[in-house]
Amino acid sequence: MFGLGMQELVIIGIVAILLFGKRLPEVARTWGKHYAEFRRSLSDIQSQMDMSDLYSSRPSSSSYTKSSPATSEEEDDYDVATAPKFEPPPSEPQKEPSTDSV
After folding, report:
1. How many angstroms separate the CA atoms of 51 and 53, rounded?
2. Do residues 16 and 24 lie in contact, with contact meaning Cβ atoms separated by under 8 Å?
3. Whether pTM exceeds 0.70
4. What percent of the chain has a predicted confidence (pLDDT) above 70?
5. Among 12, 72, 92, 93, which is most buried by a count of CB atoms within 10 Å?
6. Whole-angstrom distance, CA of residue 40 vs CA of residue 21
7. Burial state string for 56-80 with b = 16 or more CB within 10 A and e = fewer than 16
8. pLDDT at 5 > cutoff 70
9. Which of 37-46, 58-67, 93-102 shows the lowest per-residue confidence on average (mean pLDDT)?
């Protein structure tokens, strides 16, 4: 199921019995119902997403349309994002060693 071994399942069972005692069957039933409802709603959402994929492939009269690639006219309306060119700082002038002898 979740990669749990027999020892882990026994420990989880003992902890569940200690926490819930005689109410354990009722709690397990409630959790099972909530889990089934969660799975059902998850599959409903998934099927709605699949249906919306099918509908988006057909032309529709609704205001929502799938975005199409930008044309050259649309691209002219926007500035192209560019990073400033890196210029290293100017180096400091180096002093030449003096040739004077003392």
Report:
1. 5
2. yes
3. no
4. 62
5. 12
6. 29
7. eeeeeeeeeeeeeeeeeeeeeeeee
8. yes
9. 58-67
10 within 8 A of 3, measured Cβ to Cβ: no
Length of the chain: 102
What is the greatest pairwise CA distance in the chain? 103
Structure-token pair, residue 87:
């210029």
Q: Which of 27-31, 73-77, 89-93, 98-102 has the lowest mean pLDDT?
A: 73-77
**Which has the closest alpha carbon to 17: 4, 2, 27, 5?**
27
Q: Which two tokens mark 71?
A: 């044309």
Residue 33 pLDDT exceeds 90: yes
DSSP states of the chain: --S--HHHHHHHHHHHHHHHGGGHHHHHHHHHHHHHHHHHHHHHHHHHHHHHHHHHHS--SSS--PPPPPPHHHHHTSPPP-PPPP-PPPPPPPPPPP----
